[in-house]
Fold this protein.
Amino acid sequence: MTQLSHLDRLEAEAIYIIREVAAECRNPVLLYSIGKDSSVLLHLALKAFHPGRIPFPLLHIDTTWKFREMIAFRDRRARELGLNLLVHTNQDGLAAGITPFTAGSRNYTDVMKTQALKQALDRFNFDGAIGGARRDEEKSRAKERVFSLRAPGHRWDPKRQRPEPWRLYNTRIQPGETLRVFPLSNWTELDIWEYIARENIQIVPLYFAERRPVVKRDGAWIMCDDERLPLAPDELMEVRKVRFRTLGCYPLTGAIESEAATLEDIIAEMKQSRVSERQGRLIDHDDAASMEKKKAEGYF
Amino acid sequence: MHMPAALRRDGATDLAPIQGVVTPAETSPGGLLRFITCGSVDDGKSTFIGRLLYDCQLVLDDQMESLAKDSRRYGTQNEDIDFALLVDGLAAEREQGITIDVAYRYFATKKRSFIVADTPGHEQYTRNMATGASNADLAIILVDARNGATAQTRRHAFIVSMLGIRHVVLAVNKMDLVGYSQERFDAVAAEFAQIAGKLDFAQAVAIPISAKRGDNISSRSAEMPWYRGPVLLDHLETVDVEEAAADDAFRFPVQWVSRPNSEFRGYSGFVASGTVTPGTAVTIQPSGVRTTIKEVWLAEQNLDEALVGQSVTLTLTDNVDVSRGDVIVGAAQAATVTRHARAHLLWMSQAPLKPGASYFAKLATRATAAAITAVHHTVDVFDYAPVEAAGVGTNDLASVTVTFDAPLALARYRDNRELGSFILIDRLTNETVALGLIDEPQADTASAPVMASAAQPGQLVSNVVTWLSQAREKPLRSIVKAITWRTTGSIDTFVLSFIFTQDAKISAAISGTEILTKLALYYGHERIWAHLRFGLRRVPAPDTQPSK
C-alpha cells in the first residue's frame, strides 16, 4: 500500500484545519504577511477549496516599512490569483510619526503591527484569523493551540486555552472573542522549504542570495531598501551578497551573507546552520518572555 | 536479565549501537514518531526533553546563549545549565519551575523524525496531558528512581492506555540520586510491570536514565554497566509502532461541500480510515442513501485512489443530499447509526458533570447536542477498579451512557478513532468540558435509556434521568410489597390484640379483617405515590450493569 510522506501528512492536516475554519467561523480571514510561511499558507488554502475559490479574504497589515519587493510581490500575486486582498495600515500611528527609528522596536511593533491588526480585525468584524505561525519558531509558540482563543480585546491568556484532543477543534466563541488559527503548527522551517521546493511555490526573491546594498547595524546586515534609512556618520553602505531567512520591516530585519541562490542551496545551507531563523529579527531579542508578552497583548 | 520479563514482550534485543546524530532533515527512513513524555511533577520531563534536544545537537547557538542566560536567572541547577528551561516557555512556568501546558518540539535524527509533546505532571493539568496523548504513538512515562510509581504515574498510565497508545517506555530517571543502583531500578521496573499488566499495552520497556547527567539518553552510561538494554534514543529510533489497522473500512466525514459552479459538486474531507477508488459503492450516513464514487480530487490532481490520512474532495455519480457532518462509508461495511453509546469520559471542567443536561458535542465533523443519560461508575486511578460514582468532577474518568440528539455514524474508539471520539462543550461558557471515547455504540431500540419527550424543539433536554425512571414501580411489585407488609403487620396486630384481650378468637377476627381492608388501602396509596415527584432527589446511578 502506498504510504503518505511526512510532507503529505502535514499538507493533509493543514488543509483539514483551513476547511474547519471556513466551515465553522462566521467571518474568517487569512492573515497574509507575504513571507514564505504565508506563501505556503496561501498555496494550501488554494488547494483546500479547488476548484472553488478561497471562501474568505486575505488581510495584509502594512506598516509602510516592508521591503519594496514584498509589496510588489503581494500585488502581483493578488492580481494573478484574483484574490480578495485587504490591506490595513494604522493611520493613527502613521499620523503620530511612529517609525522603527523614532519609537524603539518594541513600541513600533506594538503600534504598527499589534494595534493595526486589532483595528483591522475589529473593523471587518472577523471572528477567525488564520496565520502562518509555527510551533518550532519560539518557546511560547511551542505551547500554542491550533485554534487559539483570544479574549475580547484580542488578549491571549495561556491558562484559558482549550484542550484540543485528536482533530476535534472547539470553535464556539462568545461575542467579542476571536480565534487565531495556525494550520502550520506542526511544520518546521525545513518542512516549509522542502514543501516550497516540492510544490514549486512562488516566494519573494529576497530569500535568494543576491548582491544588495547593506549596512552593518547591531551586528546584523540591514538592507538600504529606500532613502528613508538614516545612516549614522560611522555607518558605511556596502554591497554584499546576502539573503533573508525571514521577512518583515526592512529596518528591523537582518540579512545573512550567503551564496544560496536556489531552493536547493537554501535547504543545504539550512542543514548546516547553527542559529535559529528568529535571530535575524531584532524585535524578538528584548527579553526571554518577550514573544509571550507581545502575544498576550494581541500580536500574532 | 536486567529487565523483568513481563516488561519486554517484543523480544527486541541487540539493538545497533547509536549512530552519530545530525541536524534535522536528512531523509528519515524510519518515518515520523509522535511521542509524549508524562509522569508526576518533578520527575524531570522537561529536563529530559531539553537533554534529548541538546544531545541531538538541536540546540542552536543563539538558543544556547539565551539558555545560559535564563539558567542563571531562573535555573534550579545552581550554576549548571537547566535543560528544562529549553522547553518551559511560559513566564508562569519559568517562575514556578513547573510545566503547565503541552509543549511541542520537533527534531530528527538520521533514522527518524520526531514530534514530542512534553505534557504537564500536575494533576490540575491532566487535560493538557490527555490532549498531548490523543495524537501520540508512544509514551515515555518518567518516574523518579527514589519514589517509584506515584498515583499520578498510575493515572497517566491509565489515560495513555485508554487513549490507545500501545507502546510505552518507563524511564526510571534520577538514577544518579540512588547511586545507579540496579536493585532500585529492578524494584521500580517490577512495580510498573504490575501496573502495565492491568492495561492494554503491546510493549513496555524500562530504561534507567539520568536526564540531568545524560545517562542512557543518547549514549550508554558508564555508571550502569549492569544495564544491557537499549539506550533511550536508540529505542525511539527503532521501535515499530505500526499496527495493522483495526478498521480498514472506508470512512469519510464530510467537512465542506464544494459547489463552485453548476457543473461541479464535490465533498471535501479527511479520509479517516480505509481507501476508496472511483466506482466504489458507498452509503451516505446517517441518511442511508446509496451512491457511487465518481472521482477523487486533491486540488487539481485527479487521483486513482484516496488513502487514509489524505484531505481530498470526492464527487458522486448521483445528485444526492450530503451535508457537512455526514459520513460517506463503503457500502459493504457501513458504520452503526444510532443515538446511544457506552463511553468513557475524561471530565476536564471545574464544574461537575450535570447528568441529563444538554451539551454541545463534536464527533468527527458533526456538531450536535448530547446528554450523559447514565453514569455507570468512575475509575479509581490507583488500582483501576470501578467505583460507585457520587458525581463526576475535574479529572475524573467515568463510564457513562451518552445520548446524541439525532442518530449518527459511530464506532468503537479502538476500531476507529475518528468515529469513536468526541468532545463535549458547555452551552453557556463554550468551554470544552470532556473528551469521550466510545466503548460500544448501542442500538436505539434495545435497553437504551428513553429520553423525556418534554424537550424544546430542536433541543435535547432531559430532566428525567434514567435511574429515576427505573425506580418507578410496576403494579405487580406494589401488590407483592403490600402482601408482605400486611402479613407482617397483621401478625403484629394479632399479637397485640391477644395481649390486651387474652382472646384468640377476637384477635384473629380483627387481624384477619384488617388484612383485606388495609391491603387495598396500601395498594392505592403506593400507586398514588409512585406518580408523585415530591421529595425525590437526583443522584448518580449505581452501576447496574457489570463494567467491561
In short: The first strand of chain B starts at residue 32 and ends at 39. Confidence is low (pLDDT under 50) at residues 1-27, 446-472, 538-548 of chain B.
